[in-house]
Specification:
Blueprint (H helix, E strand, L loop, with lengths): L6 H15 L11 E8 L6 H20 L6 E7 L3 E2 L4 E2 L3 H9 L10 H15 L5 E8 L6 H13 L2 E8 L7 H8 L5 E4 L9 H9 L3
Parallel strand pairs: 1-2, 1-5, 5-6, 6-7
Antiparallel strand pairs: 2-3, 2-4
Length: 214
């Protein structure tokens, strides 16, 4: 019997199989990292700011996709009271990756940063490739609901060999989050911007964190 798949069905099949494909040996010579992006969708994030965060991740992944050095696999999570997003996906189809980013919900209910870090750790532990560096990039404009639990999750991630890059927002009502974000990030990997609208200025910087300066 011959089974015919529509283009849409084929895309869904690739999405489902993405986590298992990600476990294969890396193909690129550089940019060899398993990367989890975490974007903030708490109540302080406007619709415009949410779109800016999604565009930021899409711009970075587009640049990686076009790089001859790329060997990364990517997951993107959105967090508020809950955490949303799929597991690690290789760059087999940039359209599917970007559709997943565009489909992230805008919950706007609290800043449960610890849950996002916990989910990122679970994804990397369950789906990460052996012998490949692990990186979490977290963007937030607010202090977490449970700071001690957030610090605990970040420390646990770093003890497991996961580097954490943090992007904090200075010009916002929740600027008190800056010391916390600095504390949860790895040394030398904290970036401060005045507003989320400045995120685009960090595309090359964060790409360099993934590609070791490439």
């Amino acid at each position: 019997m011959t089974v015919h798949l529509t283009n849409r069905a084929l895309c869904l099949l690739l999405l489902v199989l993405g986590s298992s494909v990600a476990l294969r040996e890396p193909e690129g010579e550089e940019c060899l990292k398993d990367v989890v992006f975490i974007v903030d969708v708490s109540e302080s994030i406007t619709v415009e700011s949410f779109e800016v965060q999604k565009d930021f991740v899409k711009n970075i992944t587009s640049e990686l996709y076009m790089s001859e050095f790329n060997g990364s696999v990517i997951a993107t999570l959105a967090f508020s009271r809950n955490v949303f997003g799929a597991g690690l996906l290789p760059f087999k189809n940039i359209t599917i990756l970007h559709e997943g980013i565009d489909g992230l919900p805008h919950e706007r209910e609290g800043t449960h940063t610890h849950l996002a870090l916990q989910r990122a750790r679970d994804i990397i532990t369950e789906q990460g490739r052996i012998g490949v560096e692990k990186l979490v990039v977290i963007i937030s404009d607010g202090k977490s609901k449970f700071p001690e639990r957030t610090i605990q999750e970040a420390n646990a991630a770093k003890e497991e060999g996961i580097s954490i890059v943090g992007v904090g927002v200075e010009d916002c009502p929740c600027a008190s989050n800056i010391p916390e974000l600095e504390r949860i990030t790895s040394p030398g990997k904290f970036y401060l911007i005045r507003s989320l609208q400045e995120l685009s200025r960090l595309v090359s910087t964060i790409k360099a964190e993934i590609c070791d300066g490439k």
